[in-house]
Amino acid sequence: MSTVLLLAITGLGLGALYFLVASGLSLIYGLMGVLNFAHGAFLMFGGYAGYEVSRLIGATTWPGFAVGALAGVLTGAAIAALTELLLVRRLYERHIEQVLVTVGLALALGALASGVWGTDAIIITGPDWMSEVTVILGARVPNNRFLAIIAAVAVLAGIVLFLKFTRYGLIIRAGVENRSMVTALGIDVRKSFTLVFAVGGAAAGLGGVLASQYYTIVSPHLGPSLLIFAFIVTVIGGLGSLTGAAIASVLVAMLQQFVNYYVFGLGEFAVVLALALVLLIRPRGLMGRVAA
């Protein structure tokens, strides 16, 4: 019983990390139709920014961690906004060029990170509470899993509230439906689309900080490895569906955790098999909309 509970809670923690990355992918694709392969780089630089800032203030203190997390969020948002302004804005409705440019940007930013911090993983520390465990019905659950779960729930709620109840959220949704009409009303939709990228990048930056605490390392490979699972989650959940991404994040992480434990480390194979089955049986994903 304790083993099953431990796998379930740690699976939720891993799913929370997947969602923090997949939420930005799903948001950007759902509202703007852009497949952003540089999204993992936003996460990676968010993790490095969090590491550097928290190290300066005090990596093992809560103020150091909090300011480092804020730095990671702002770094992810800034890089994402610049990506939209300088590169993606010229490529809307040109999907092949979007893929080529964002893949190239991901490679360039990965090389930049390797040049600045080296190719080896950097071991990081956090507040003592994160390295401790909480015993629940006999299961010794690492505390950093709870932090990831809380952050993912807060991000999901924040994005939904932003889109539904703010002026910019209304403009973004209207611009997606009829961009020319919104522009004719004198509203600059381009600023709103830049904001969408920034929000997605901020979620990825926070994911980078929490992933570095989850794995206790930060490295140039952190973003690409999580991005693979984030794309799987996005496809299974349904491209453009934030709710689908949340559900798929939990399902994928749970499947990975349980299969890794009970079937000799074949969790990744099980996830890829699940992706193949979803594409064969329900190509639009769990919550994806039927193409008009």
Could you write a compact summary of the structure shown?
The protein is mainly alpha-helical and 292 residues long. The protein has helices at residues 2-32, 39-57, 62-86, 95-117, 128-131, 143-165, 167-177, 179-184, 189-215, 222-237, 242-262, 267-281; strands at 122-123, 133-136, 139-142, 217-218. The protein has one domain (2-281): Orthogonal Bundle (ABC transporter involved in vitamin B12 uptake, BtuC), CATH 1.10.3470.
Q: Could you explain the architecture of this structure?
A:
- With 292 residues, the chain is mainly α.
- It has a single domain, classed as ABC transporter involved in vitamin B12 uptake, BtuC.
- The protein has helices at 2-32, 39-57, 62-86, 95-117, 128-131, 143-165, 167-177, 179-184, 189-215, 222-237, 242-262, 267-281; strands spanning 122-123, 133-136, 139-142, 217-218.
- The strands form two sheets. A two-stranded antiparallel sheet has the order 1-4. Strands 2-3 form a two-stranded antiparallel sheet.
- Strand 2 and strand 3 form a beta hairpin.
- The longest helix is centred in the first third of the chain and has 31 residues, at 2-32.
- It starts with a helix and ends in an 11-residue tail after the last helix.
- This is Branched-chain amino acid ABC transporter permease.
- It is a multi-pass membrane protein.
- It is found in: Cell membrane.
- Keywords: Amino-acid transport, Cell membrane, Membrane, Transmembrane, Transmembrane helix, Transport.
- Belongs to the binding-protein-dependent transport system permease family. LivHM subfamily.
